[in-house]
Amino acid sequence: YTVKHFTAEEGLQRKHNNPKYFEHKMLHDAFVKDVQSMKADIEQNGVTVATGPMMGATLANWLLSHINVHDKALGQYLQSVGNPVT
Fold first, then answer.
1. Which of 30, 53, 71, 76 is most buried (most C-beta within 10 Å)?
2. pTM of the predicted model, to two decimals?
3. Measured between alpha carbons, how far is 35 from 55 in angstroms, rounded to an integer?
């Protein structure tokens, strides 16, 4: 779902010429890489005592930083160019 969401969001950014598109895409790519790395680690080593905190920190950072800062700024940009985000 995350990859599908990112693809749609990035398409919207390209369509409306978001000047921060490449920066935003790099953040998406880094998050996907982090999640894939955690998944591979769990598949190889199973769930360990480090797994929960690692996943929690990654997701908390994403929620607090990316969504609250970068996606909020994207919404403001899209509204400024006449494409309200609902």
1. 71
2. 0.86
3. 8
